[in-house]
Specification:
This protein has a domain at 3-95. Helices cover 43% and strands 15% of the residues. It is built from seven helices and five strands. It has helices at residues 3-7, 45-55, 75-88, 98-110, 115-122, 127-130, 138-167; strands at 14-15, 26-29, 39-42, 171-180, 183-192. A hairpin with a 2-residue loop joins strand 4 and strand 5 (183-192).
C-alpha cells in the first residue's frame, strides 16, 4: 500500500477475521492516488499479527494515529520518523519510505505473481507500471513451462476421460493436425485409449 493509504487507514477498514481468499483477513482501501486505488488487500500472517497487537493498544479510530488519537499521522511526521530510523541504521539516503512498497511489489514479482495481479494489489492504473516489478529469471521461466506442461497434461487427461464417457467405449475420435507441404491440415482419426504406448 502507498504511505498515504497507510496513514489514512481506519480500524473500520481492517478485517482481521479470515475470509474467502483472505486467510489472515484484509484491508479495505477506499480511495487514493487514482481510481484504481480502491481495492481490498489481503494480509500476510505477519501483518495480521502486527495489526492485532496494535489494535489492542489503542482507542483511536486510526490505525496509525498522529500526536493526537483524534487524527491520523501526517505524511511529514512519517517521513521524519523514517529518516531517524534510516540514520540510526546507517541506511543510504535514497532509502525513502516508498522503497518499502517497491520492495514488496518486487518480491511479489520474484514469487511468481503475474503483472496483472501486481497491478491489482498495487492499485496501479496500468499493467505497464506493474511490469517493472516482474523480472523473469531462467529458473522462473523454466518453472512456467513446467506449470504449462502439468496443466496441458491435466487438460488432456480430463478431455480424454470426458470423451471416453461420451462414447461409452475404448476408441475415441480425435482431430489430429498434420503438416502437408508446410501447411497444417486436420484429419479425423480414431485413438485406442486402452493402449499403453505414447
Amino acid at each position: 500500500m502507498r504511505p498515504g493509504e497507510a496513514a489514512g487507514l481506519k480500524w473500520a477498514d481492517v478485517r482481521l477475521q479470515a475470509a474467502v481468499h483472505a486467510r489472515y483477513g484484509y484491508i479495505v482501501i477506499r480511495g487514493g492516488k487514482s481510481r484504481n486505488a480502491k481495492r481490498n488487500l489481503r494480509l500476510t500472517a505477519r501483518a495480521a499479527e502486527m495489526l492485532k497487537a496494535r489494535k489492542s493498544q489503542t482507542d483511536s479510530e486510526w490505525v496509525f494515529p498522529g500526536d493526537s488519537a483524534a487524527a491520523p499521522i501526517l505524511g511529514t511526521s512519517l517521513d521524519h520518523q523514517h529518516a531517524e530510523v534510516r540514520t540510526a541504521l546507517r541506511l543510504p539516503a535514497d532509502f525513502v519510505i516508498h522503497s518499502l512498497r517497491h520492495t514488496m511489489l518486487t518480491r511479489l514479482g520474484e514469487a511468481g505473481a503475474e503483472a496483472f495481479a501486481i497491478m491489482k494489489i498495487a492499485g496501479h492504473s496500468s499493467v505497464t507500471v506493474s511490469q517493472r516489478y516482474v523480472h523473469p529469471t531462467p529458473e522462473g521461466m523454466e518453472r512456467a513451462f513446467e506449470r504449462l506442461e502439468n496443466l496441458n497434461r491435466a487438460k488432456f487427461q480430463e478431455a480424454e476421460a470426458e470423451a471416453k464417457e461420451a462414447v461409452g467405449g475404448s476408441r475415441v475420435p480425435a482431430i489430429l493436425t498434420t503438416a502437408k507441404k508446410g501447411r497444417p491440415s486436420k484429419s479425423l482419426q480414431s485413438i485406442d485409449t486402452n493402449s499403453k504406448g505414447p
